[in-house]
User: Fold these one by one.
Assistant:
Number 1:
Amino acid sequence: MTTDALRATPKVETPLRRFLTDFFASKLAIAGLVGLTLVVLIAIFAPWIAPQNPYDLRQLDIMDGRLPPGSKSFSGMTYWLGTDDQGRDMLSGIMYGLRTSLAVGFGASLLALMIGMSAGLIAAYFGGWVESLIMRIVDIQLSFPAILVALILLAVLGQGVDKIVIALVAVQWAYYARTVRGTALVERRKEYIEAARCLALGDRRIVFKHLLPNCLPPLIVVNTVLVASAIALEATLSFLGLGLPVTKPSLGLLIANGFAYLLSGKYWISFFPGVALLFTIVCINLVGDQLRDVLNPRLQK
Amino acid sequence: MLEPMIQLANVSRRFAKRLDVAARIANWFGAGLKDEIVHAVDRVDLEVRQGEVVGLVGESGCGKSTLGRIVAGILPPSEGTRAWHGKAIDTLPAAEARQAELKIQMIFQDPFASLNPRLRVTDIVAEAPVAHGIVKGSEREAYVDDLLRRVGLDPSLKRRYPHQFSGGQRARIGIARALAVKPEFMVCDEAVAALDVSIQAQVLNLFMDLRADLGLTYLFISHDLGVVEHLSDRVVIMYLGRFVEIAATEDLFQRPNHPYTQALLRGIPRLDARKQAFEPVQGEIPSPLNPPPGCHFHPRCKHAMERCRVEQPDLKPIAPGHWSACHLNG
Amino acid sequence: MRPNQPVLAVESLRTHFDTRAGVLKAVDDVSFQVAPGQVLGLVGESGSGKTVTGFSIIGLVDPPGRVAGGKVLFKGEDLVGASEERLRGLRGDRVAMIFQDPMMTLNPVLRVDTQMIEAIQAHDPKVDRKAALIRARDALGRVGIPSPDERLKAYPHQFSGGMRQRVAIAIALLNKPDLIIADEPTTALDVTIQGQILYEVQKLCRETGAALIWITHDLSVVAGLADAVCVMYAGRIVESGSVDDVLDRPMHPYTAGLIGSVPSRNRRGSKLAQIPGMTPSLLNLPQGCAFRTRCSHAQPGCAVEPPITQPVPGRTLRCFHPVGLAHAHA
Ligand SMILES: Nc1ncnc2c1ncn2[C@@H]1O[C@H](COP(=O)(O)OP(=O)(O)OP(=O)(O)O)[C@@H](O)[C@H]1O
Ligand SMILES: Nc1ncnc2c1ncn2[C@@H]1O[C@H](COP(=O)(O)OP(=O)(O)OP(=O)(O)O)[C@@H](O)[C@H]1O
Ligand code: SF4
Ligand SMILES: [Mg+2]
Ligand SMILES: [Mg+2]
């Protein structure tokens, strides 16, 4: 490895190119990426591609309630995945639900990433009591089950998109902080950081321009995994009725809605949103696994 | 006499491995664990005069890098003072202190770890001089080109990333980065140790050229006696955090006084010594966590006497400009 | 075995790696011999193929690498294409390997005595535990480990780096091998510790009559230790012969350049002789003589591959325009 790099001629493949080749070496990862792209596109363009706006009460007809997949409505539209008890088209419901689930999942993870990253970097770079304080909080936070923390927070804060984002951030920032601190501790000891100090560059510049970019690869990996778990956690909370309000149904809420009818044979109301949720999470995890393998220097030959 | 350019007085650096919570709890139950303290540098005095090259030699873990970092201002000493042209740096006003720190630069050992892999060469070199207002943004590119040519690199490569260069080229980038803030004093910590022999010679020549052209002063840290002998005017031998011998290079290599220096000189393989009968020093390098009392070298020394085991020998002059810390000198 | 028959004769060995960027010829037409009791130094810079040569001899090249041609005659038996079983039987028994990192040999979770007894019994199940233990203790004593009885009960991490390397050497020597391949075993160690190990190894080879291949990038170590030397550059042996011949009268411009760039060969403070340019990538070698682009003797004719010649009995050379004798003495 080192001997190779030592004599590397300027023409060798760039890290980006190598990263891409390595990433696309796995068929599963490609499948995951394709699936994920599809899901994201659907979520983004739901208002334009969904057969129906499931929240526009004028488009709903209670008479169409709980129709099985493939049924036709009065107005001649086919409910490919059936309808729920309000007479909503399940396909449209899932598309809109994805939109909410992904937005909440990605948004909360991004916010948690920013907070956790800053906390981790500060802890690693400054050390001493700052580090002790931050990492103690992280330890305490991580020693409680995520779902418990979220439940307590929501019980206190009440419902709402902003509330659930706060709950998810509160649960997840600690993971980011711990990951970043680990990498940053290693990077901080490298000589390029000492060189920057020797050149009397400011702390802020060193932390954000030198330290941070070199801590990103493991963060990206953790981020994909945590997006998936944010989505799952949000679905869980919504399923329990503590998450999003009924006016903003996510996949979790859709599943909860159909739950009551599951035993009466009207499986589709819960089943299809469940499949969509599972599919999304599996795709994210496939991508995340491959990222981890590719970005992990210890596994690189 | 001229003031020394840089002067360390009675400088020590300790590293403490503090007990963590678990160990402290274990102590309640009588585990008797203590904080572990390493005396990486133990009360040393060092003066380097303008234009001089001082070599610092010693085995792994003896505190060479720690001392180098203290000189370069990266690591604060636990005790002692550091003066630049006769003025203690930590008593200077902030702006002046920063000026002094910029005049002292460091060249690192690892040509891979010492360059930020995510910055282009031109940014690596230009960042500090622009940040400190040494060059204007508009003159930045010309300035970088100049520096790269100075260290023997083709300026047309400056938009590349460090990984696209060989070890020797990276070492040159590191040197250009240091030169960019117009230093007067360079601490080179094993600056050629990671390079191949043929590339090492190129970089050593570059150091000598820079000295001649820019009048640089060096503290040259190395475990390679051949390299130090070639480059230095004076040599300091370090053992377990203390200086054991200081002398002009010729003096040291021809009339080594301290038993440790003598052993070092005998133990190095030389190109012209064929089928050498290696005469090794006995024993291992003791742990700096738990150094032997008295003279640190006594467990490995052929001449050790009772006194060596209890009393630490002082660094004493034994000839003009030649200092040694051994009880054999009385 | 007849006296003077080489223990090992490598003939036109080629080892290639199939990489994404093409076939990398890490070892390209390499031939040499080692006689019983002889120490052969294999020198070259980083990436020149020394380690791969050593691995090829004992069949340790893993895919994407493969031995693409040539013979490895160990006491007359060709090991290229020998069964994995046969090779495993030889390794650690008749042929021993010592690595730069002793933990390649040592198992961190087993006590030293367990490992040593296993090593003996693996190749000779008839030896009982007690006899094996005695042999293990003697082996530790022979490599200069004080109080071997206690040390046998220790785990590898309880030893210092130098000690660990000694234990690895002791394990390598347990079954009195006919051939030892040592890959830079002292490179990571301190000068005084390296001296100790060179001393022990020298003594052991004299006593046991094993043939030793010592891989290193340090010409000085070869000078002090070896009888014969092969100089590698970009996968090929460019020059070989007795240590005195090659180091005092180098013929290949590369060897001459390497020797010239050793600081102790130069007057103190003078410019070092240096080889210009940098080591080429093995995937992208110049046509013909791979050293051509850095060589001061190169002529247009060097674009054809130079054949192996025997300019003087006992020496081989791959160069059209060898350095003259007068030049080498200057
Ligand atoms: N940041 C640190 N924390 C704790 N101990 C340290 C630290 N830096 C150095 N030490 C210890 O201080 C001692 C001196 O280390 P130093 O790196 O100065 O040695 P050195 O002479 O440069 O060795 P080498 O030749 O291996 O580079 C060592 O025992 C080391 O373990
Ligand atoms: N598994 C591998 N895959 C691809 N190339 C390899 C592999 N192992 C070694 N090589 C290449 O083979 C060449 C020779 O490597 P080798 O390790 O033998 O060099 P060396 O002379 O031992 O160098 P060093 O002094 O750094 O140990 C190098 O260019 C290296 O990149
Ligand atoms: S003081 Fe004593 S032990 Fe130390 S080097 Fe001198 S003689 Fe040896
Ligand atoms: Mg060091
Ligand atoms: Mg090698």
Number 2:
Amino acid sequence: MSIIKINNLSKSFGNLEVLYNISFELEAGESLVLLGRSGSGKSTLLRCLNGLERVNTGDITVAGHKMDYESSKLRLLRNDVGIVFQQYNLFPHLTVAANIALAPRLVRKVSKSDALTLAKEVLGQVGLLEKIDAYPSQLSGGQQQRVAIARSLAMKPKVMLFDEVTSALDPELTGEVLDVMEKLAKSGMAMVVVTHEMAFAKKVSDRVIFLHNGRITETGNPDEIFSSPKTPEFKTFLGAVG
Amino acid sequence: MDIVFQFGPVFKRMDLIIDGVTMTIQVALLSTFLGFLIGIICARIRIEGSKKAKFVVACYVEFIRNTPFLVQLFMFAFGLPQFVALLGFNIRPSPYYLAIIALSINLGAYSTEIIRAGLEAIPKSQIEAAQGLALTPFQIFSRISLPPAIAKVYPALSSQFILHMLGTSVISTISVQELTLSAGRIQSETFRAFESYFIVTAIYFALAIAFRIIFKLAARFALPWLHKTTNRS
Ligand SMILES: Nc1ncnc2c1ncn2[C@@H]1O[C@H](COP(=O)(O)OP(=O)(O)O)[C@@H](O)[C@H]1O
Ligand SMILES: [Mg+2]
């Protein structure tokens, strides 16, 4: 059963066409890595998957929800789709526990004590239980990003979207975040990951899509695609990122 | 000739002073609360309201901020009862309520501008993160945008509230029995003008300092995250 199904998606900002005719499917439990140069449309594609951007044409179905921009339908979809950004975006005025408990409390109407249990559970998953009462400003970038992941997980999503979640981190802190994501992928979470971490793409992903100027230029499983790139664009890209 | 200040006669009317202080505090708190509420609502409209609503709020804010408060007060005090009568209602709102209305509407306009500045400083990415968590627009505003926005402008906002408290003295002109009017009555009874106003001035000063301290303390409770030392590990 496919958890994401995209058919002929096109998207432009005004006159600027950013995505052309994107189609792909992702099976439940699979993880997909999106590669491409800066400006190739990776973030836009990811944001189209939870309706943060509206497509011009094309059909999107995610976690059983057909994309519909009517606000209550959109919230139903977002209920099942977690997203984590480059700039952690923790809420600065809330403790770690409150950051995590907020959406389950408000959206899922979970009781206060269940929300706390949930917060402890997901913090355990990202290895930060001891930071439960800290404020975001008291955490390192890597810790903030792990809390952001935990916050998404607390909504029990069926799909997780990651947009360059390690790009803002010092190199020595990327490992702890990538480890969490790898564990998550192994546990069977369906995920779409925009990253420049080639080692992660090779080791963890089930499938890779290379975007170039808004088009899917190359796609395949990581074993084939990295060992025998077909297009000159992808060869150049691989040469550049090493 | 010898000039002697005589505070004795003024202190004899301590009852008037206490009544006045009580009224001043009561009016200030009530209208600050209402004005703050108006400010929050109008600031939200200015940020994410429809074009028409934005325009209406902009007119309100500019009208209030570009006219004297005394004139606004008279407009409410003398105009509103006339208007109510014209509509066929047989009620005469007391000066107390008219003053609260005028004060709240006045403070609301200034608060709108201050709170709007705070809301504009909230990064769009914060809102997107909240949208990603399936929160409703109202939840995003009240839980995600508003608290840090208020925190950002808290110094400006509390200064405005203190100015506002001092500004309540103007409502003595429509015979609300507050502190300034008490001073007037005492000096006309005792003929001790300087002493009466000196004492009342000192009380206003003390009130302003007290408000400042209360706002500082309130921030510790209401905005706790600002007081956590950054302690990255
Ligand atoms: N909100 C926007 N308005 C206008 N142009 C945008 C907007 N967001 C992205 N773009 C443009 O769309 C293109 C793709 O951007 P993006 O999806 O962020 O690329 P990537 O994530 O691969 O770096 C870029 O040319 C970018 O300038
Ligand atoms: Mg991007």
